[in-house]
Amino acid sequence: MTQYAGPVPMGNADTHRGRLLRRLHIDLPLFVGLMFLSGISLLVLYSAGEQNPELILRQTTRLGIGFGVAFVLAQIPPRSFQHWAPWLYGLGLLLLVAVLVLGEIGKGAQRWLNFGLFRFQPSELMKIAVPMMAAQYLATYHLPPRPRAIGIASILIVVPVLLIVKQPDLGTSLLIATAGAFVLLLSGITKRLIFSVLGLIAIATPVIWHLMHDYQRQRVLTFLNPESDPLGAGYHIIQSKIAIGSGGWFGKGWLNGTQAYLDFLPESSTDFIFAVLGEEFGLTGILVLLVGYLFIVWRGMVIAIQAQDCFSRLLAGSLTLTFFIYFFVNIGMVTGLLPVVGLPLPLISYGGSSMVTLMAAFGILMSIQTHRKLVAS
Amino acid sequence: MKYRDKSGKNEAIHGYRDTRIFTNRAILALVFVLLLTLVLVARLVYLQVLSHEHFTTLSQKNRVTIYPVPPTRGLIYDRNGVVLAENIPTFRLELIPERIKDIDATISELRKLLPIDNAAIERFHKERKRRRSFNSIPLRFQLSDEEVAVFAVNRYRFPGVDIKAGLTRHYPAGSLMAHVVGYVGRISEADLQTINSANYRGSTHIGKTGIERSYEASLHGTVGYQQVETDVLGRKLRILDQTAPVPGQNLHLSIDANLQQIAVDALGEENGAVVALDPRNGEVLALVSLPGYDPNLFVSGIKSKDYSKLRDSPDRPLFNRAIRGQYPPGSTIKPFIGLAGLELGKIEENSGLFCRGAYVPEFQSKRPYRDWKRSGHGYTDLEKSIVESCDVYYYELAYRLGIDQMSDFLEKFGFGSKTGIDLPGEAAGLLPSREWKRRNRQQPWYPGETLITGIGQGYTLTTPLQLAVTTATLAINGKHLQPTLIHNIEYPDTGLREHQKIRIVNNVPVVDPYNWSAIKHAMFQVVHGQHGTARRIANSDYRIAGKTGTSQVFGLKKDETYDAEKLAKKLRDHALFVAFAPAEDPRIAIAVIVENGGSGGAIASPIASKVISAFMTGEKK
Hints:
The structure holds two protein chains of two kinds. By secondary structure, chain A is an all-alpha fold. Chain A contains 13 helices and two strands, in the order H-H-H-H-E-E-H-H-H-H-H-H-H-H-H. In chain A, strands 1-2 form a two-stranded antiparallel ribbon. In chain A, helix 4 crosses helix 6, helix 5 packs parallel to helix 13 and helix 11 packs parallel to helix 13. Chain A starts with 15 loop residues before the first helix and ends in a 7-residue tail after the last helix. The relative contact order of chain B is 0.10. In chain B, helix 10 runs antiparallel to helix 21, helix 14 crosses helix 16 and helix 16 crosses helix 18. Chain B starts with 10 loop residues before the first helix and ends with a helix. The N terminus of chain B is likely disordered. Helices cover 37% and strands 21% of the residues of chain B. Chain B has 21 helices and 23 strands. Chain B is an alpha+beta fold. The interface between A and B is large, with 65 and 55 residues.
């Protein structure tokens, strides 16, 4: 923290407003992007939630808490994150094990710990702690990392992922695995290694396939192609495709969607909210949403590239790209391109803890951007 | 491993390289982000622009519902085309929870019209929990015509409730085939673990036991779908789209229903099992376990009163004795031990010993091992030892062979391992060995145990099916086949039939074919010889080779004598008989067990004789 030289004017943004934002550690472009998406969220949710004001109130509260968390985290300099990473990661692992053990005792799947006043999902903590730990570890050495460092980093990633797969929470474990993988990819591991891993998967797949029972293969096929089971997983997809497809270029208009109202569209305010957007606002509305998302990804990557130390770069890059995977997987799933893994649409879907985690990640991005030491230009 | 240089000397260079690597990768990542987003946009253009009209039509229909169309379950026939399992049309009452405001109220209203028992309601709720609310869930099966009419009149009062026509499994042969064909029952929680549930949407039943279970995948078929436009009450207005189901395959069993009936009649009131198979291809011709039960009781959920009656009966009708009952083989093992003696050179066909009714082993002179015939058989050679079933001969032979050789030899015939028949729940029997005893009993093998293994007592256990298979293997000179119940499988769409392949488990090595003929000749003399233990079934039309056996249920103390009259029925010996015919060119091998029947020659052999006779003469019942 000693290196921190205090707010220094940034390039030609040396305006009064710029100085204030810097002092508050707020990155304006990111903040605007997030506010924009929050607005879309409330708009769509009002329709998807059948105009229930209580739903909107609760979502607004959550957004408020999210922005609060982001603001607090933005005040903490990246050095501290780097310093805390192993502790945070260790705590996360401990809690994941606790969840599994308690779940074992309670004879049922468990994802959260009940602290009386609130429930806490350790896997949410790991969404940030895993890339942070991987970045912290790899930043100890020069890049690109040596084979041994890659191996250890991989273990650091795989252990929590497996614990979460066991919960079982496929969506979250997938996100954490990609977050870790992005740290490795950004750290500059050689293309040869990337291709060998892909090759290994290509070889292993038919072998595993051969070893599976017939009904297990059927299940995998149903998972990969949910529409082959139109009364199970495929039902959602068929209905959401009808909703999106019937939206056309400009949609049926706000509050004019029929599929969610007729209860055709299941989980219309959570995982499948994208279908409501698609039906009511059409392709135009979706493109506006995508532009909002891409703007945030763009800003996140700019922050990563401009970051001044290896840890910050890797962490910012990984968090940003994971955010991309988040919405890519959700939209892919709702439009029938990808299997149904149960991920909400980030920042838009109704839902608590994952929203707070996301905002925390953006808080860290803001911290990285606003704590830079400025080199004289 | 080089740590980052804290002094900062190389920092500038490394820092520059780090940044360059990172920036390259970050730009690459952004390119991927854009490409993947374009994929999404392309998909959305496809859905919202290109297929817009199609989806608009679908969304404008007041309701589009998808119904599964369950496939027709394959039929099961005997080898001559007699139907053993068929599907008969029935009506059932189904509820769609999503369309019903108050389910409990609806059910209690329905109960005023139709009898619905509590178990059915409980089952309905259980199923409701694991199905999605837009699925149609059955509440009552097999409605009578009158009940259908009563509901039809009141239908307007029950939105979301409907009568569905469906097919229900029916077993016209009743208890005759219960242990072969088995039955179907409602899909349970446990079943769901091992099936692809997508293929079972709309199916309510699944094979629970017997052929119905082991050939579930073939019999079930593939589910089809209908996209149906319905009105607000859920009534179908129009079919928009459909995928036809693929019906299940029809199974033609190797079982001959006529022969099966003859075996059942021959066993009569006794508890026991009969297994007959074709030694040339392993096809099972009859597989009987008595008492049986009516499989039709299970199809729509057996009433708990009926079930506990079956379950708690001391005769255990649900227990498939033919494949799960494990009995000491008794003297039916002697031909195999005799063959082992010849093949391994421990005895010669024409040399023998003098039987005085008891055997005093070298290692233990205090406790003589008794023959079943207290006066003894006198001078006994190999043939006589089989024909008259002399125990003393086999005590001596077992002693000469030792447990290891005996166990190795018997193993090749399939003793002690599952035959691999296509029925669930087969027992393996037990072939004792030194290794087995050490592992399971933590005890060494005692020499006395070798002697009683030689006469098929002690630890050895076999199933009736195993006895038939080992006898068949002996009959055709060592070709050990896997038994099967399938004659052929018929594909209903093409009508093509796929014949079952003969599966050879292994070939028992033949040292000298003459040894095998000697044993088989002795078995022929068991039936056709002057002193044969099964001479009562001899006839002049065809030649049978066999071996009687009696297996002890109740151990006698040293000086007690066996008195069947005094012993309670369930403590009496089991009567066994194995045989094949014609002796010179075997086409049928058979094993009969009559539980607590007493003597194998008197009780079991006539049963086998009736089955063989029916088979040989093609007699119709």
